[in-house]
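Consider the record:
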Amino acid sequence: MKALLLGVHPVLASPDVTVAIQFYARLGFKPVFRDKPIEPRYAVIRRDAAELHPDAPWGTREFHLRDLGQNSLQFYRPL
C-alpha cells in the first residue's frame, strides 16, 4: 500500500535544483513549477498533498519560524 503524505511544504537548500527534482521523482514527486525550464533556481514538486521547494543556494544563512498568530517569519543574513 502506498503511503499518503499530508500537509508538508518545506523549502530545502539544494545546491542543484535539477538534481533534487530528479532524486525526488524517484520517490513519486512530480514538478509543478520551475522558475526556468533549464537550470532552475527554484521549483515546486508535489506528491499527494505534500510539496517540496528545493532552493538553490542563495548565499545566506536562514531560519524560519511560525509565531503564535501562525504567521511565517524568515530571518537571514549573508554568509
Remarks:
- The longest strand covers residues 60-66.
- The mean pLDDT is 86.
- The chain has one domain: 11-78.
- The beta strands are 11-13, 30-34, 43-47, 50-55, 60-66, 72-78.
